Amino acid sequence: VNPQANLVFITSLFLGTTITVSSNHWVMAWAGLELNTLAILPLISKSHHPRAFKASIKYFLVQAAASTLILFSSMTNAWQTGQWDISQLTCPVSCLILTAGIAMKLGLAPFHFWFPEVLQGSSLITGLLLSTAMKFPPITLLYMTSQSLNPTLLVTMAILSAALGGWMGLNQTQTRKILAFSSISHLGWMAIIIVYSPKLALLNFYLYALMTAAAFLTLNSINTLKLSTLMTTWTKTPALSAALMLTLLSLAGLPPLTGFLPKWLIIQELTKQEMAPAATLIALLSLLSLFFYLRLAYCATITLPPHTTNHMKQWHTNKP
């Protein structure tokens, strides 16, 4: 992709996000989501690999279906109430359809199957955009309509996401797929709290985006796509490997690190709302994802390859 086309795609991406985040009208929000989808498609398929084309087609079909559901829910609401304002979503059927549409856009369980496949077919930088920037407009729509949404449905989807994100990530050896399942389980934490404390869900999203960006950019700079490659990084870049370990443990939510803060606050808020069983369940399910984060951290820092690596040591100077 030449630099001019790249600039157009990135600008369209930010423009689509800005339109959705700043709009009060459902049609404008929908137009922003569509612009976002069309801007990311060339970035997914730019490697010209068959898996990348397959990923971009999957992404397009799922996002088109999700956008259709969102537009349909807003039309149903306008039919019932006579207005298109995002914050005035009062029709119960519209609320259910909107929740399904946004869950599909985000990759919340049970609409999560497309996300790991699409991430696996993308480059690490495109994967970073898919995991953070592309999730911001749907999360904003959830934030703006949070007072109207069905809490039982969202809590069910959240617990399912935390369970599936942890369970399906256990057996993976590809770092992109592991980060995709990590994203699904984190979305579960955001979905469970968004009705009760929308600002807390946004805090969780911002911290998740920050930590995921650190993980993706580190993996990109050491050019690591598999666990077996990750095992050789300590001999090449010890400082980056140590930073990656701290980032992964923070994503896991271990107490002294930043990632623990939103989980702690969410559990506290759920307890205040007399939802202690749900809080206990989602906290226990996060132990599943903790296992694969620990395995990633272990591979990045503690294991050494059993044979000499073919990589040039970073601190060796090239002799003329």
From TrEMBL:
GO biological process: mitochondrial electron transport, NADH to ubiquinone
InterPro entries tied to this protein: Complex_I_Subunit_2, NADH_DH_su2_C, NADH_UbQ_OxRdtase_chain2, ND/Mrp_TM
Keywords of this entry: Electron transport, Membrane, Mitochondrion, Mitochondrion inner membrane, NAD, Respiratory chain, Translocase, Transmembrane, Transmembrane helix, Transport, Ubiquinone
Bilayer-crossing regions: 56-74, 86-106, 153-171, 178-197, 203-225, 237-255, 275-294
Start and end residues of each NADH dehydrogenase subunit 2 C-terminal domain: 290-319
Occurrences of domain NADH:quinone oxidoreductase/Mrp antiporter transmembrane (ranges): 23-287
Catalysis performed (reactions): a ubiquinone + NADH + 5 H(+)(in) = a ubiquinol + NAD(+) + 4 H(+)(out)
Membrane topology of the entry: Multi-pass membrane protein
One GO MF term: NADH dehydrogenase (ubiquinone) activity
Keyword Repeat attributed: no
Signal sequence bounds: none
This protein's GO CC annotations: mitochondrial inner membrane
Location of the protein in the cell: Mitochondrion inner membrane
Protein function: Core subunit of the mitochondrial membrane respiratory chain NADH dehydrogenase (Complex I) which catalyzes electron transfer from NADH through the respiratory chain, using ubiquinone as an electron acceptor. Essential for the catalytic activity and assembly of complex I.
PANTHER family referenced in this protein's UniProt entry, alphabetically: NADH-UBIQUINONE OXIDOREDUCTASE CHAIN 2
Similarity remark: Belongs to the complex I subunit 2 family.
Record's protein name: NADH-ubiquinone oxidoreductase chain 2
Classification lineage: Eukaryota, Metazoa, Chordata, Craniata, Vertebrata
